[in-house]
Amino acid sequence: MIYTIKDRKEEYIVHQYDRTPYVDDFVFVFLNEVGILTDWNCKEKSKLWLYNLHYFDVLNSPGSNNRKKYNQELIENWIDKNSPCIGNGWEPYTLSLRIVNWIKYFLSADFCFEKAEKSLFVQARVLYQSIEYHLLGNHLFANAKALIFAGVYFEGEESKRWLYRGISILDKEISVQVLNDGGHFELSPMYHNIILSDMLDLYNLSCAYHIEELEKYKERLKEKIEKMLLFSISLTHPDGEVSFFNDSSIGIAPKTSSLFEYAHKLSLLKKKLNSTQFVKESNCSALSFSDSGYVVIDSPECKLIVDCAKVGPDFIPGHAHADSLSFELSLFGFRVFVNSGTSEYGLTSERLRQRRTSSHNTVVINQVDSSEVWGGFRVAKRAYPIDRSVEQEADKVVVQCSHDGYKRLKHKVIHRRKWQCFRNQVIICDNLEGKLETAEAHYHLHPDINAELVGGQVKLVLPNGHVVLVRSSDSVRIIDSTWHPEFGKCLPNKKLLVSFEGNDSSIIIEY
């Protein structure tokens, strides 16, 4: 095997994200589970935990440059204990993330050694032969990114084939996966930030290596990145973390603030930006992402994120939840109404429960989900949004949307929802068109919110002591539930359960 390393023309911009899996020598924490590295394919660990172990995010985490000797030992251990094409580490997705992490580390630390370079070359060769065309989505994007990184890093005819294959995939997938409004087509804020970080890495690489095949993509990447940054900050809560629509969780993707910092280092922003700089100093302002389907309403005290979106792309809805017409609401900087989040993948009953309509801030009719989620990553009959509109006046914003997910019921019910946002008030009105047996609206509260029934209304107390009142047109109960902000984490919380007495119901949130 003959290979050479290509010289770069400019400095590679070093950027380490905000979270680290490193605990101590050969001790890691992934998915809120601590483990000691004894076997790279330990049968006692979940596959997702082992995947994270093989990614090698530790190389580009805070403090990595102070662990060069340990990093080398870890890389050598992986090479010695993972024979080619055997085990989790040689699956295409783990190959993709590890190839990029090794190359980013070698470039940023200005450090490498022959044993690692030989292994890296073999890994890229295997990936080239096992691209995940059958899975598509973020997996295929990760494959393409890794082939481009390897194709740029190495010199020679074989590495050129990797580069050309990666670019040909990227050329198509950027158009498919990044919508015109900047949102990622899987409609998950978490996966959006993952793809945005991939785009920033590719732009960084294209600046460091003046390669003709990449140069023509720089402006295209820049244009897409700018839109993706706006989408990212818009669907981020004031606490700096992502909102929970579809498969989304804290601690997996880079934080939005870290992505903005990275973009600033790459001179993609003239100045550092944060969410408040997208908020107009008026009573309410609305930003409608017409391609992805989300609507964000901002004011100095309130941030409302409304889901008027499809569950995901028709041909790959694997990360979809049955969350049509759900919403999340932060008041005075605190999350108040939250979707239930994602704490695990797989084929478990808990995974299914977290994807069901009742785990989101929306309406369940006849105890049936708005979209038929099943398996770990499957959707059968699904809801489609219809009649979406956004109207903004001087003192209010009105968002309206319907979905047809319940048309599969005997009486073909349509769920219509309207959000009206005023200076100190949000009104949510539901109308169910058609005959039904039962209907319940679920409103999940963040665990830090104290809730009690007082005189026929619900009194919510925020962590800063601010009181929010919720009035319902129908009977409302406060019941126990759970919130899942991270993988491997389950927190007790409360939710408001409103039982429809007819076909119409509404709540008024006063703050």
Describe, in plain words, how this protein is organized in 3D.
With 511 residues, the protein is of the alpha+beta class. Among the domains are: 9-134, no CATH class; 282-510, Distorted Sandwich (Beta-galactosidase, Chain A, domain 5), CATH 2.70.98.70. 30% of the residues lie in helices and 24% in strands. The protein has an 8-stranded antiparallel beta sheet with strand order 14-15-16-17-24-21-20-19, with no helix packed on it. It has a 5-stranded antiparallel beta sheet with strand order 6-7-8-9-10, with no helix packed on it. Strands 11-18-23-22 form a 4-stranded antiparallel beta sheet, with no helix packed on it. α3 runs antiparallel to α4. The N and C termini lie far apart (68 Å).
Total strands: the figure is 24
Corresponding CATH architecture of the domain at 282-510:
Distorted Sandwich
**How much strand?**
15-25%
Which CATH class of the domain at 282-510 is shown?
Mainly Beta
**Termini distance?**
68 Å
The coarse silhouette is elongated
What's the main sheet like? 8 strands, antiparallel
Q: In angstroms, what is the radius of gyration?
A: 24 Å
User: Uncertain segments of ≥5 residues (pLDDT<50)?
Assistant: 274-282
Which structural category fits the helices and strands?
A: alpha+beta
**Roughly what is the average pLDDT, rounded to an integer?**
94
Helix content: 25-40%
Q: Give the count of helical stretches.
A: 11
Could you name the CATH topology of the domain at 282-510?
A: Beta-galactosidase, Chain A, domain 5
Q: Trace the largest sheet across and list its strands.
A: 14-15-16-17-24-21-20-19
